[in-house]
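Lab notebook, bench 4. The sequencing result for the construct came back, and we need a structural model before the next group meeting so we can plan mutations. Quick request posted to the team channel:

Model the 3D structure of this chain.
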Amino acid sequence: MPMKRTSALCFLVFTFVLCLAFVSCSSTSGTASSASLVQAVRLDSYTETILYNGTATLNSEVKFKSGVDGSESIGLIWSSSDESVLEVSDGVLVAHNSGPENVTVKVVAALSNDPSKSATCTVTVLSSYPRLLMAGPGQDSSTEAVISWLSPYESCTLEHCISGSSSWTSVPATGVMTTSDWADIPGMYRYRVELSDLVPGAAYSYKVSWIDDSGEALSSDVSSFSTAGSSGSFSFAWLSDRHINVPDGMGNIVELLSYFEEQNGPSNLDFCLFSGDMVNKGQVYLYWDYWTESGLLDDMQWAFLIGNHEYYPKGKKGITANSYFLDAVALPDNSLAAPDSCYWFIHDGVLFICMDSMAPEATLLPSADTDLAAQVSWFEDVVSMNAGRFRYLVAVQHYAFLDGGEDGVGNYRVWQPVFDRCGVDLALASDTHSYTRSLALFGDAVSDVGTVYVTSPETEGKGLSEFSNALDKLGSRAAYYTDENVVGGVWFEVNPECMTMHVIGKDGVEFDSVSITSRR
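Done. Here's the predicted structure in token form:
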């Protein structure tokens, strides 16, 4: 009898183990089967930008193969390539970047039972350090400058001194929340500090300091700029049309500026004039921030103008608002009745008047700002109020006045009589991605004394570096025209007798040059 009970007990145990094995095999088989029914894992965003202590949420979707109802719940495992900078849990991202540089982190959502089926989001975690810190021209560049930056902190201090001095001047500043409806980040604090009573012809150093969330005192790296001198001799660069939308995409600009410096001899460039299309889409903050990451803003003044791409919203084209540009760059506040994106400055005897050629098309500007007649009136007022203070007059906008021998889209017929009345020496524009230089024009006809109209090459992409004068497409007004997309830039040397323009291809070779004699 004991023998039979033992045999029966063994039989029961054996049967129970078989049942467990069956259940276990059924569960594994069901899970593997579920994974095999999945076509892909999807996210609602594959690129994100987060402030240094910000949060964001990624929504996921498991896409089943055709014919599968998808009613079964499938688990996901979320992971971050750098948990110290960006934590992730069920799609919720929490950033912790307190360092001086932006950090790029990969966030992956993968099937829990088949990691090969996954989706990845590239997340840029912004630094807490000042972004877009730059020096721009003051109204009188010999004694004034404008320093601007963006920060997540409401209070900062600007410090500046003559380079080499240990005596820093501190300027406490309070930021104003940006008005831009950035597509990829919430607002930050915008700072704009106007410096005055500077020493003419001097090199200045500046930095920004602040107290972080932990109470630690921090400061940015030291940047620099130079004020205008009074000799009437200086040099400057002119570039345009980068349309930046990728990191590490400033190579052409870096190379061109290097060529300019080499060809300029012992004199440094005083500043760079950039006539629009800094970024691909104005509403995408990260594109602007690529200028910070490039280091180009660190050691020279930049006079930026607004182009059509600065007006563009994310995802589509359309001339909307200039707020993205105004939140991002340093410029003097002297637009008066014109749009705020218009301004002027005098640099060692040259009056630069910077217009907004996009404003008449803008859909989100006040009607007064879209009135081209108001810009014309403002332009003439600026010339009148500065009578006797300049030897050369340069008008700048983004849309081209002339495109080869033809009228461009920049309202040439409106501006030409204004430039004749005011005695404009140079009318600079861009947008076409080709190069045009006219002969001196007065009354829309070639003249010994008149305005030279120039349209700049672009700085984006590979393009052509070898320029050829398309003689068969020249009208009677043009002296040089390229009908292909060309990469290049321009630098000017200015003295009391003349301004000489040097046009350089991306290979460093000069292909056009002209001198304009002072008529004042």
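Residues 2-36 form the longest helix (35 residues).
Will bring this to the meeting.
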